[in-house]
Give the backbone structure.
Amino acid sequence: MFFQNGRRILAALLLSVLLLVTSCATQAPSPYAQAQKESTQRNAPSAVAKDATQGSQFNKFFPKGSGGFQTVAAQEKKGFAEYKLKQGGKDVAVLSINDTISNPTAAAKFNSSTQRIAGYPAVNQGSNGTAILVGDRYQVKVQSRDASFTQSDREAWLQRFNLSGLARLK
């Protein structure tokens, strides 16, 4: 009987010591903690301008799905909104609107553009992306996610956005 009680006491004692040792141990800092500390201490400007358009305001300008395509809202935040374009349940492209007021260099790349889509300056971004600048402020982009979704498909979908409505947004 003493042996059983002794084991219980020993187990409780060992458990208490284990809890004490592990709770007092210092944890290694997160690999992101230093970067977070540096970025908040140097008075870095906000990543998104205060007067950037709310992402929810962009939703009404995205094209609706049709012809076997479905548009599905994917992300929305201040200055940005994104939809996935699906066909047969598979992601074939990503549609997005970005307010360039937070990143003026994003709009500057359109200054030397000779290509136009729906009357707006256009640029190709890599081999899978096509973008236009609407109202000298809003970048509307279509990015292929499947090889079957071509440059001409991207251009056609850019024209399906409500671009004139977006141009009036301020």
